[in-house]
Structures are given as C-alpha cells and as structure tokens.
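Appendix B. One record, verbatim.
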Amino acid sequence: MKWMNFGKRLWVGTASVLLAGALPLGALAETAIAEKAATSDPATTVVEWIAQMEATLVQITGVRVEETEAGLQIVLETATGELIAPATTVTGNALIAEIPNAVLALSDNASERDEFQQFEPAEGIALVQVSGLTGDRVRVVITGTDAAPTAQINVAETGLTLSVVRGVAQLGETDNALRIVVTGEEDEGYNPSAASTATRTDTPLRDIPQSIQVVPQQVIEDRGVDTVIESVETVSGVGYNGGFAGAPTGSVIIRGFSQSQQFRDGFRDTDRTGLTGIGTVEQIEVLKGPASVLFGAVEPGGILNVVTRQPLSDPFYSVSFETGNRNLYQPSFDLSGPLDEDENVLYRLITSYRSSDSFQEFADSQITTIAPSLSLSFGDRTDLNLYYEYIDYSASPPEDYSVLFDDGSRPARDFYLGYPSFSFRDLTTQKFGYALNHEFNDDWQVRQNLSVNITDAEDSVAFPIAVTDNRFIELGADDREFGRDSFSGNIDLIGKFDTGSVSHQLLAGFDVSYTEDFFAFSSTESLPSLDILDPDYNVPRPDDFIPIFRDDNFSTRYGIYLQDQIDLLDNLKFLIGGRIDWISQRTEVPDEPTQSQNDSAFSPRVGLVYQPSDTISLYTSFSQSFVPTFGSNPDGSVFEPSRGTQYEVGIKTDIIENVLSATLSAYQINKTNITTPDPNDPDFSIQIGEQRSRGVELDIGGEILPGWNITAAYAYTDAEVTEDNSVSVGNQLVNVPKNQASLWTTYELQAGDLEGLGFGLGLFYVGDRQGDLDNSFTLSDYLRTDAALFYQRDRFNAALNFRNLFNTDYFRASDGGNLFLFRGEPFTVTASIGWEF
C-alpha cells in the first residue's frame, strides 16, 4: 500500500514537473553561473561546482547566417571569451568543424539552447547546422547541394566567422552528392528521437500516439548487459518471465501480459526458446500495448523489436575482450566497411565466443555467435541488405531451477537442483534473410523482406516433482527434442501526398508467414530423491526413459494492413490503421486424428497527437490485438481468438529540448475470450475468462548536463483476473509487480588529464509478485544495485561492470510453481577492454 501511494504521488508530482517543462537543477546552475562567473573561489556545493565547470567554457550566444556573393558567412557570437579555431573535415558533401571548449547558449531558456539549423540559406548550400556535443564541443556542419563547400575561419574576441564558398561538383559526382544511407549507427546517446516499430516508418517518437521506449546502444554498452532481456530492465512495465536460465532466451512481461514472440528489424523472430545474441544489437524498441495492427497475432501487452547493426560506409574495426568472475572470458570482433571504391558494396562481420561457469555448482555455458551481413546499392534508389546469424549455446550441465519452501526458506543459491552427470542442453538458432528497398521518387517507395529463423534444441534435465520436510526433493528426468522453423515475408508500399492543406504518409502492406514446430520427450521417475542438506550427485544416467509424447504443429498466416499518418495541422496529428489476418493451424499427434482450425481477425488502431508547443505532445489512442486459441467449445464450435483492447493517454515532453525527454502514460488493457473450465462439463472449456491490466508508467532518458546521462523509469501495474470459473476474481497475474522502478546514470569527465573517465550507478527495484495464478505463494520484492567504472579516449575503451553489487538474494521469476523458480545472479564483476581502428 505504501508503494501504491508512492506511485500515485510520483505520477502527480512528475506530471507537474513535466508540464512546467523545467529542470530545477538546470535552473539553479544557470543562476549559479552568473554568481560565480567573476570569482575563483572554490566550489562548496554540487550546484556551484557545476556552475564553475560551465563558467570556464566559452558560450556561443548567437548564430548569424548571411549570404555573400561566393556563398555565405556564418558568425558564431560570444559574450566573453575567445573560441579556439577548429580543424575541418569533409564527409560526402558536408564540411564539418568541431570547436572545443565551447557550449551553445542561444537562449536564456535551457530547453532551447541545443541546436541551430537553417535550410537552403544560399545557392549551393543545402543546410547549416550548429549543434552542441558532449565533451564541451560545438559542431558546425555545412552541407553543399552538389559538393562539399570550403571555408576560411577567422577568430576574434567577439566570436568566430566562417567565410564559406560553395563547392563545385566534379564530373561524375553530382548523382551521388545528396545520397544518404541510413546504417543505424547514428549515435543519439541516451535520448533517441525516432523509431520505426510503432508505424513501420521512421517517425519521431513525439508524433506517435502510443508509448514506445528505445534502449539505445550507448545504454546497452554502458551497462555491460549480456542479453536482450537484461537490456530492457531500464524500461517501465517490462519484466522477466522465464526462459532457459543462463542462455540468451526467454519471454517478458509487458504491461502485465506475457509476450514470448520477439521481433528482429520489424519482423517475427524467435520465441521463448530461440537465441538472440547481444553483440548484433544496435538498439531495442519496446512498443507498449496491442501491436496486431502491423504485426499480426501478438499478446496485448506489447512487443520487443531488436534493431540490428548494419554495414557501414566508413571502415570500422573493433576488437574487444571481456573477463570476469566465475571463469568468464569472451573475445569479440566487429569489422565493417566498403568492399569497392564506389562504396556500393558494404559488409559487416560480428563474431564472439563466450565461456562461463554459473553461480550454481557444476553448471557452465558456452555461446558462439557468427553474423555476417552485406549491403548492396543498385544506383541511388535501390538497396539490398543480406544477413545471416548463427548462435549456438551449449551447457553441460545447464543452470537449473531453484525452489521456495512452504515456510518461505530457500536452499543455498549455489545448490544444483538435479544430477549433473547426465544433464546437458544444446540450442542452435540460425537467422537469415534480406531486405530490398526501392524508391520510385522522393515520395514513394516499396520494401520487400524475407526472414527465416531455424531453432534446433536438445536437452536432458532433471525436474522436481515434490518436496518432503523442506529437505528431500523427489526428481524425475526428461530427454527432450524440440525445434521451430519459421519463414516470414512481406511487401510494403509507403507514400507521401497532400490533400489540400492536409499531409499524409500512407503505408499499405501484405505479409505471410509459415511456422513448423515440434516437441518430443521421454521421461523417467526412477531417480533417487535429492537431500538438500547432504546432496549425493553421484547418480548415473537412468536406462528406463520411456517415450511419452510428440506433437508437430503447423501454422500459416496471411495479413493485409493499411495505415495513414495524417498531419491535420502542424501541431495536430491523426493516426488510423487496420489489419485483417487469416490463420490456419494444424496439429499432428501420433496415433491420433489430425486437428486443424482456421481463424480470422480484424485489428484496428486509432490515435491522436496534439502538440501545444515544440517540446510537448499530448496523445490518446485505442488499439486491439488477438491471439488464436486452438480448440473447441462443448457444442463443437471452434474457439474464437483471444482479444486485447487498450485505451491509453499520455504526454511526451522534452525537459531539455533534444537532450532530455520523458513519457508519462496511463492505460487500461482488457483481455477477453480466455478459456476456463466449463462448470457443466469439466472435460471442456468455454471462453468467458477475462483479465485486466491498468497502470501508470514514466520513462525519462537523456543528458542532464554535458557528460551526465540518465535513464529512469517507474511503473504502477494492477493486473488481475476479472472473470474465470477456476481462478478467484481479483487474483493478480503471475510475475507482475505492482511497483517497479529503475535508475541508470553515468557521468564522464569532459576535460583535464582524466578526460574520458566515467562512473555509472544503477538501481533496480521490483515489487512483490505472485508465483502462480492461484496466488498460492509470493516472490518477495528486491532492490538490486549495479555500478560501472569506465575509461574511453580516442579509440581505446576499458570498463569494469558490477552487477548486484551488494549480493542481494532474490528470485527473478516463477515458471508456474514454487518448484520452478529462476534465481537472481549473485555479485558479478566483468572487466572489458577494446580498441577501434
């Protein structure tokens, strides 16, 4: 109850701050700068220290762009202090100058001081852009229409002047002058501004009428995480829902509902058992709420979309090595660049090998990743990207479950629940496909994609059956084989057009997918019980495994979708879309009749965004999702798909424009058509079950001051059963905490002999969770502390990452009962070193 009240107070208090659009620390620092600018007295408070740090820099207070006969003149005005003349570089048709020891202060309002830009200021000049960078630098980019311009630089006490002469294209260069290749490597730090998951178009986050959170590459690298699921611990309302412990697999809880289906670059990827390597990840986009309008059958809480690293046009070579406690070591290589002089063929190769022991006695794991990719350009308007990714995980024995006894006690954290002499797990996932993009003109383009995902798995593991006297665990064992092959393809048509004063961005698409999966196991219960206090692991493999079950499942899905992003006014945006799906399923079990079922579903989404200022977006939306339900009612009619319906409102704001942003949202999701036992015939089920999740979420990310980054989140989630014949109404859904909060922040020194030295701190709180749908036991809350120490200078980087700094003992999640629990990893330290060439 205390945390519930805290969550409500935090929501109201934060909403007031966001609507005010001000950061108190920034305001204090501005005042302190004025007071401290003329004195050299040592700082005695954090605010004064920040003020003195900023007071030593040269502030650029104005930017003037004036056209001249030869091109233009750019004047950077300063109030006091003399700027350092910068060196210039040329990239494509852009002239770039980076000015050290300087900051932009173009306005008295801190939220308006980050960037200046002017399009087509003079003939032959496409864009002038002046931006503040981390490390107390200001970048000036002057982009020519046909070729890179040149500039003469003059420094005076009152500022710096760039006299720019427009460039002249050489023979054969004009066709490529303004060509832009998006590789996914543009670094926006902790505050990414756009994502494609919500709309399948590159849309600014502030224009999307739905909560979508992006975990950028810098956060992933700074935290030193090992899996995709660990990466999203910084996102509100997202939690772990189990998988294969120790392997880069698993499912998540989003807004109270389990989601096992992951996506890769916008297309169906692995499920709970498939592997996803962290080394190929550029960023992770989390779309909250129903997503069936573009992605077909998914649970209503939301989806994870992994955006992968793409080939680069500039040569890039990275070598790194990581080591840590529990015998961890991992070499990694990331190589990229052009294969021809015209940069029409680009490549990338990412490889790594990871070996580590587990915190559980006996357990270990090895993970191998090999991921080559190619990007081919056929002229200015056609690109083809090809990729392949191989991931192999092996463990002998693998990390296993832990248990929670009736009295609330638990075995030692390193206790191995099983018999290691015959336990093993081998998983292999292969992913390959292509993405073809062709632009008809500046307004219309077509995309066609193919994605293939093949997972093969085999394991032999012991499993708990019962516990006696909180000491003796009765065990059985399974030999299992399972796999999943999925093939997905789609074609999208994207176009921009106007109807009068109203602008449209239209998306029309068709996709198809085919999936085969199988599961088979043999079992034995002839194992001796395991004494927790005095375990005897010297047990040979049983020889009486009996085949128990096998099934093969086949699914074919077709979908067509249409979406229109409409700019009714400059500050009023309307989104409408709909999708129709047709799904055919078939299940084959030996010696039983084949079962088949056909379903169809319509999934709409409607949203509205109103932007009263350049830094605030108010939005509301309605969306629905579906998942097929295999089976039939007592009368023989097939089950309808389960349905999810969400209503959401929220506010997105730049606390500091283009630097620090926040999203505050409130939602309600109703899931209906859930199967529950028929009270008139327990051998059958009927679809009257319902569940509801409602909550409030807050996400903040970006840069507070130069070098000081933050990502913070809070979620209040009330997810419960609202109608069921076997589960009590009001029971909480499994693994869903009512309160969840996270904070990750880093600071990097920006000048001096220790420039590049940084520190990181993370706090992750997860509240009490129910371990099963009957709410028969509870997983207690926990607070985990992480930390980091890093150094980066030029192309060298090194880091120490600490996870669970205070060795908190906690359960991550339940897999359906108190004998099937995932234990949190104890204190872990890793050291990494790397070079870029």
